[in-house]
Amino acid sequence: MQSIYQYVWLVPLLPCLSAIILGFGLLSFNNSIRNERLFSFYLSTGFLTIAMLLSFFIFGEQVSSSLAHRQLWTWIQVGSVSLDIGYFIDPLSSIMLILVTSVGVLVMIYTRGYMSHDQSYVRFYAYLSLFTSSMLGLVLSPNLVQIYFFWELVGMCSYLLIGFWFSRPNAAYACQKAFVTNRIGDFGLLLGILGFYWLTNSLDFDIIGERTHEILINNSIDNNFIILFCFLLLSGPIAKSAQFPLHVWLPDAMEGPTPISALIHAATMVAAGVFLIARLLCVFQEIPLVMDVIAWIGCITALLGATIALAQKDLKKGLAYSTMSQLGYMILALGLGSYQAGLFHLITHAYSKALLFLGSGSVIHGVEPIVGYDPNKNQNMVYMGGLRAYMPITGSTFLIGTLSLCGIPPFACFWSKDEILADAWEKFPLLGWIAWITAGLTAFYMFRMYFLTFEGDFRGSLVKQNEAKTTKQISANNALVSINKLIQKDSSEKVTNKYPHESSTSMLLPLILLTIPTSLIGLLGAPLFSTEPERSLLSHWFYLDNQNLTTLVSTNWFDYLISTVPSVTIGLIGASLAWLLYGPQVERLKKTDFYLDPVNEGWGNFLLEIIYKWSLRRAYIDDIYDKTFVWFTRILAQKISLIDEWAIDGIVNASGLLSLLGGESTRYVETGRTPAYIFIITFVLVLLLLLSVVVSISLFHF
Questions:
Q1: What are the backbone dihedrals phi and psi of residue 88, each rounded to the nearest 5 degrees, phi first?
Q2: Which of 131, 309, 492, 647 has a CB 3.0–4.6 Å from the CB of 157, allowing a cystine?
Q3: Residue 76 — left, alpha, or beta (φ > 0 → left; ψ -120 to 50 → alpha)?
C-alpha cells in the first residue's frame, strides 16, 4: 500500500486550481462566468472537500505512526546556496490541515446562502479558494522561505477579501489599514529571516534551532544579535495575529463579508501567527527574555481585547475583539512554554469562533430586511433583541458557541483555557491572575452580546422611530415628503418584513455542523481516556521533539478537579453579572427610550463613563496612532512633496528653461551668411586670446 504522504501536494493544489479556473473565467468570459453561480459553488466546494478528505487521511496516518515526513525539491542552486521547496508533515501541520479545510468547506456552503444576491458571487468564491490554498501551503511549508511566500499570499488574499465591497468607503479604508499594518510586521519578519540565515546559514526550522543552540553554548556571536533577530521574527506573528500593538486592523476588517470574518479572522489567517510562533518555539525557547516578552504580549492583548469588547454595540466588532483576546491566550501559553495548551486552544477556539461569526451573519441576514442594509443598523445590537423566538436554530447554536468561549464545561474551550490558566498560575502567577480576570470579562461580554441579541423584546422598530425623529428636524416641505415616503415604505413592509426570519438551509447547516466540534473536540485534550489526569490524547503526540515544554500540573484526579474550580467560577460570575445587567428581566431594555448599557449617578456614573469611552474609543490606541504616526507621516509627506516640487523639480525645470532661453537667444545669430560666421569666430578667438594674455600677465606679477 502506497503512503498517503505522496499525495500531500494535492491538498493546496486543488483549491488553487479552483481559483485559477474561476479567475481565468472572470478575465476571459466575464459576462458568461458571472452567471454560473452553481458551477462556481460546486467547483470550489468540491475541490476543497477532496482536500479535506485527504487531510483526514494524512491526520490518521500521522496519529498512527507519529513520524514526521519531509519531502523536498531543489528550487534554486547557486554555488553553496540552495533553496528548497516541498512539504513537511508533523502533528502540528496535520491538524492545521483539517482545521483549515473543514472550516473552509463549511464557510463555502454558508456563502451560497449569504452571498446569493451579490453580483460578485463568482469572484468571491475565487478569492476564497485562493486564500484557502495559500493557508494550506503555509502550514505545509518546511522552511522560512516557503512560509514567507505563502505568508505574503495570505496577506494579499486578506486585502482582497476585506475590501471585497470596495465601493464602500469604510471597506476600502479597512483593507488598506490591514494591508499597511501587516506590512510593518512582514518587513520585520523578512529582516529576521535574513538575520537568522546570516547566523545559521540555513532556513530550515530544525537546523536553525540546533545551530542557534550551538552558537549560544559556544558564545561565538554576541547574544544581542540573536535577541534582535528573534524580535524581528516575532513582529510578523504579532501583526498577523492582531497582537498589541499591531492589533488595530482586526476590528476594521469586519467590513468584509461575514463568511470572511469566520474563515480569516477566526479560524485561519489570524491563527497563522500562532502557528509560526509554534514552529519557531525551538528557537525562541533558547532566549528566556524572548519567551517572557511573548508571554507578556499575549497577556496584555488578552486583557486589552476583553476590556474593549465590554461595551461594543456592533455585534461583529465585539466578536473581533473577542478573537483578539483569545489569540492573546494562545500567545501567552506559547510564551510560557505550554506548547500543547496553546495549540489546543487554537483548535478549540477556531471552531467556536467560526460558529459565532457565522451565527452573527445569520442574525444580520435575518434582521436587515427590517432595520435596513446599512451595517450601522443591521450589526447594531441596539436594534436586535428577542431574536431567539424568530431564529431558534441560530440562537441555540450561538448559545453553544458562547458557552464554549466562556469556558463552561464540557464545551471545547473549557479544556484548553483551563489548561492555560493552570500553567500560567504555576509558571508566572501574575500573568495567571491577569488571565483569570480576563476569563471573567470574556464571560461577561459574550453573554452581554447573547442577551442583547437573542433575549428580551425585539427592538428593530426603533430604527423607524429614530428616522422619524430625524425627519422632524428637516424643513417643513422636505419633512412632509420624507414622511410620506416612510409611510408608503412601512405599509409595504408590514406584510412581509414585520419580524425577523430564520436563515436558509445552506446557512443553518454549517451552524449545526459546527456545534459538533464546538461541543466535542475539547475531549481530545481532556484527561478522560486515561487513568492519569495529566495525560490526554493530545499529550501523546502534541509535543516538541527537542524538549517537552509542558509541565504537568496535577498528579491525581482530586487535584485536577480542584484546579478547574477557579476558571469555571469566574466564568459563571461573569455570565451571572451579564444576566443581571442585560437579561430579559431588565426593565431598562423594555422602554422605548432606553440606554443599552446601565447608567448611574455619582462615582458609579463616572466609572461607567470611563469604561464606555475606553471601549467605544478602542482604548484610545487608534487616536494615539492617528495623532502620532499617521499625522507625522502626512506632514512628512507634505514636506517631501514641497521639496520634490520646488527643489528637485525646480532644478530640472530651471535646466530646461535655461536651455530654452539659450536656444531662443542664439538662434538670431544664425543668419546663414558665411562672412558673418567668420566674423563671429574671429571675434571670439580674439577675446579668448586677450583673456589669456591678461591672465598670464596677472600670474607673472603675482
A1: -135, 125
A2: 131
A3: beta
Phi, psi of 314 (to 5 degrees): -80, 125
- What does the buried/exposed string (b/e) look like for 463-478 if buried means 16 or more CB atoms within 10 Å of the residue's CB? bbeeeeeebeeeeeee
Supply the angle between the helices 37-65 and 121-139 in degrees, to the nearest 10.
20
Ramachandran quadrant class, 54 (left: phi over 0; alpha: psi -120 to 50; beta: rest):
alpha
Cβ burial 208-225 (10 Å sphere, 16+ → b, else e) = bbbbbeebeeeeeeeeee
Distance set, CA 325 to CA 242, 308, 629, 657, 690 (Å): 9, 10, 24, 61, 87
Grid cell listed for 528: 478522560
Rounded Cα gap, residues 354 and 356, in angstroms: 5
Q: In the 8-state DSSP scheme, what is residue 498?
A: S
User: Per-domain residue ranges for the chain?
Assistant: 313-458+502-608, 617-670, 675-702
From the list 405, 363, 134, the residue with the least C-alpha distance to 266 is 405
Give 224-230 contacts, CB < 8 A, sequence gap 24+.
225/195, 225/199, 226/199, 226/286, 226/287, 227/287, 227/289, 227/290, 228/195, 229/191, 229/192, 229/195, 229/196, 229/199, 230/192, 230/283, 230/284, 230/287, 230/290
pLDDT (average), residues 569-579: 92
C-alpha cell recorded at residue 252: 476594521
pLDDT exceeds cutoff 60 at 533: no
Q: Output phi, psi for 408, to 5 deg.
A: -90, 125
What average pLDDT does the structure give for the chain?
Answer: 84
Alpha-carbon torsion angle 566, 568, 571, 572, nearest 10 = -110
List the beta bridge partners of residue 77. 82
| Burial per residue of 625-648, b for 16 or more beta-carbon CB atoms within 10 angstroms, e otherwise | eeeeeeeeeeeeeeeeeeeeeeee
H/E element, 85: strand 81-89
- SS3 label, residue 338: coil
Beta strands in 568-698 (DSSP E): none
Residues shown for the chain: 702
Q: Which helix (H) or strand (E) is 74 found in, with range?
A: strand 69-78
Amino acid, single-letter form, for residue 228 = L
pLDDT tens-place string over residues 479-497: 434 444 443 444 344 434 5
Instruction: Determine if the peptide bond prior to 245 is cis (ω within 30°).
Output: yes
Q: What is the pTM of this model?
A: 0.86
CA–CA gap between residue 5 and residue 55 (Å, rounded): 10
Measure the CA–CA gap between 633 and 604, rounded to whole angstroms. Answer: 40
Non-local (6+) Cβ contacts of 317 within 8 A are 251, 254, 379
Confirm if 125 and 41 have CB atoms less than 8 A apart.
yes
CA proximity to 314, closest of 251, 388, 370 = 251
Q: What is the pLDDT of residues 602-624, one digit of tens each?
A: 566 677 788 888 888 888 998 89
